[in-house]
């Protein structure tokens, strides 16, 4: 019960932060928000709330049943999902991965690592090694994809998967990348068949990254 209350409050705080960030970003940089645009942002936040609360509910259910997932783990995944959802929205609208949000996610990851080191100092090598390897794998694979894709993948996407790798670690980053590429390929084929995009058109990566992380998290909970 206490875990559920804390996660719910934490999720609501993240949603309030996302509201403030979206409002500031699109009122200052894009001009005053119209009523239609404001409603669109509220739709985004409502969907975000539903998605995050769904994963929080599943997390608490499986943690109580199996005693595998503790509160810091739930908060870490919730933070990553929130950040990726916000990045997906911005990337879809602007074809841009804001450095500010990447920095916020990395700072949060360092804070979670600090908590882990304080609670389990004897495992400091493993605590630090897995996120670093995950970040390295994510960054290297996306850097290679950037070189091969000829501007289909940008430097923002590389930084995005460095951040994701730091969160999910070396054990889950490969599966996360696999799910991301599968979802992007399926969506790309559908858009091509519908003639919404052309073969050489680029598509935003962050929405597919969010889907990949969400799928990996769901499978981790089910498998746990």
UniProtKB/TrEMBL annotation:
GO terms under cellular component: plasma membrane
Gene3D superfamilies, sorted: 1.20.120.1220
A Pfam family recorded for this sequence: Peptidase_A24
Superkingdom classification of source: Bacteria
GO molecular function terms listed in the Swiss-Prot or TrEMBL record: aspartic-type endopeptidase activity
Membrane-crossing segments per the record: 6-22, 42-62, 99-119, 125-148, 160-193, 205-223
Listed InterPro entries: Prepilin_IV_endopep_pep, Prepilin_peptidase/N-MTase
Annotated coiled-coil segments of the chain: none
Domain Prepilin type IV endopeptidase peptidase: 80-189
GO BP terms: signal peptide processing
Keyword Transmembrane: yes
Record keywords: Membrane, Transmembrane, Transmembrane helix
UniProt xrefs under PANTHER family: PREPILIN LEADER PEPTIDASE_N-METHYLTRANSFERASE-RELATED, TYPE 4 PREPILIN-LIKE PROTEINS LEADER PEPTIDE-PROCESSING ENZYME
Family affiliation: Belongs to the peptidase A24 family.
Protein name in UniProt: Prepilin type IV endopeptidase peptidase domain-containing protein
Protein source organism: Vescimonas coprocola
